[in-house]
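Researcher: Next sequence.
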Amino acid sequence: MFMVPTEKEILGGESTDAYFLRTMESLKGEGINPRVSMEAHLKKFPDPNYKFGVVCGTYEVAKLMEGKPVDVYAMEEGEFFFPGEPVLRVEGNYRDFGIWENSILGFLCKPSAIATKAARCKMVAGGKRIMSFGTRRVWPYDVTMVEYATTVGGFDDVSNVAGAKYMGKEAVGTMPHALMLCAKSSEKGFDAFNKHTPRETPRIALIDTYGSPKSELFEALEVFGSELDGVRIDRGDLKKTGKEIRWELDIRERNDVKLYCSGGLDEYALKELKDVYDGFGVGTKVADARTFDFALKIIEVDGEPRAKFGNYGGTKQVYRNDKFEDIVTLEKYNPPEGYKPLLRPLVKNGKIVREFDSAENIRKRTVEKLESLPPDMKDINTPYVERVYFRGWME
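Model: Next structure:
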């Protein structure tokens, strides 16, 4: 009914570029099918101020490669990475998996971009609550991916029902302007919500539909009384308005009412607003984060280092110390003292050998890593400084 490939078509290799089909025909005709290693790496961040990326999509790659005679090594889902270093490696005879290059990259590029943008927002917001509000801006078939990626990146909650379902979460949200518009007044809209929404649902009133947020705040206080949990502002000068609404709540001794905002937010906006608001609904600028330009390149053929110009040949490992400094070297070398390997087995001869963790556990690890970052990596307004060292020879 809709223009989407089925799972059968993806697994059958149809979601590929035509030149891969011609490549397979050419290699088969010549009887060529070498064992290769292919590594996925990011060329550069789309924003020069990005200090790290967040890997997202490795579990989907594992499902794609399941049952095929290949080995896959990958960083853990939600791990931080830097440009140039491999985040995932596939080993096998080329004709056994090469046709899925498009899908492997597709499972990594957009989800990792969204997870990274989400992590930057969470890093800036600190302990403030962040909800994902962006799925209305994406193709409906992408909603589960968006909500999963924002969770991997550290967002606390998601608003999309299907996206939440696939993670075993409950969707959250406030109320739309449509409710007050259809009710023909904010007061009637608030009253309808209060009468017909389950009591366990937080009463968070949207207070900028008709008049000033201040006047609609008073209506919300009147309708919801002591059960008012929060208010949300979606437009205008968010900082100025937020301060004024907070003042009105404080002088009425309603500091129990949380203050939320939404509307075109990103990490730069959150930096300016976090001292005013208790939480944020972040949507379009994360759901539509600029895609990461991952490349999947052959770096070894039949045990011999062989790579296109601009790529480092040879099967490699990434090692990291507790200062988030990485060394990329050939896999055959032992890790330097104080460093741990990041590429671990994910699929061995077609069998998934790593247990998938829940999105919530990955989210918690992301938040912990954000808190442990060196100060320079927390600065969102300065350019990236190289943290990866390539060493072709080690003792």
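Model: The chain is about 35% helix and 20% strand. The first strand starts at residue 35 and ends at 42.
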